[in-house]
Design a protein that fits this description.
alpha+beta; elongated; 6 helices; 219 residues
């Protein structure tokens, strides 16, 4: 079955399609996916809907006078559940599209896009249980894995993930492009910053020496 065609101008469609493809790819690599976050979200949502439905049915069958006391408490509980659901989505899940593990390495991935910018952003946290997790932020344009007609192309997307995220690259080394990876990317950034810092330090030293000589000449 071919991938569905979507509008390349719809950021929500691009993001949702990519979000769905990521966990499917990881589970195919034998990543264990935890559904705890989704289960809690569904439990809160269905509980609120159930309370609303039972309250409506009771009011319809028994009348307002017989149910107004219980309706009051049902409304209170309904708003509490919806408040908890909102907090869970924005305060706990925070855009997470995958939580799981492979080979005793915990992996959590959250996705996001900025308004009017067709760039897919991922924040990845990974590490062994009990250790400080490493945090990796990567981004790439959707055009990297969507063609001009709006069809999702899995291979370049999987290559990007395997190249940039070490646990995925270890699980699927054939998809790693150029021997790169998230860890190497971080090392290059750190090294570049060190070189820039050394250059800035040398520049400041030369400028300081020049000012000192000029001051002596003026004296």
């Amino acid at each position: 079955m071919s991938a569905p065609k979507i509008s390349v101008y719809s950021l929500s469609d691009l993001k949702n399609t990519t979000d769905d493809a990521l966990p499917n790819y990881l589970t195919s690599l034998k990543f264990y996916q935890s559904h705890f976050l989704a289960d809690v979200r569904l439990a809160l949502g269905y509980s609120a809907v159930l309370i609303a439905g039972v309250t409506f049915y009771a009011d319809y069958k028994l009348g307002w006078d017989a149910t107004k006391f219980w309706t009051l408490w049902a409304v209170v509980v309904y708003f509490i559940l919806n408040g908890a659901l909102t907090y869970w989505i924005w305060g706990v899940e925070k855009g997470k599209i995958f939580t799981g593990e492979i080979n005793d390495t915990l992996v959590s991935i959250a996705s996001s896009v900025k308004k009017h910018k067709p760039i897919y952003n991922l924040q990845v946290r990974y590490g062994k249980p009990g250790e400080e997790p490493r945090v990796l932020k990567i981004a790439a344009p959707f055009t990297r894995w969507f063609d001009a007609d709006g069809y999702f192309v899995a291979t370049p997307f999987q290559q990007w993930l395997a190249t940039e995220i070490p646990p995925i690259g270890e699980a699927d080394p054939r998809k790693v492009v150029g021997g790169g990876g998230g860890e190497k990317k971080e090392e290059k950034v750190t090294e570049a910053r060190q070189v820039k810092g050394n250059a800035d330090s040398d520049k400041m030293t030369r400028e300081g020496g020049a000012r000192s000589r000029n001051s002596k000449k003026a004296t």
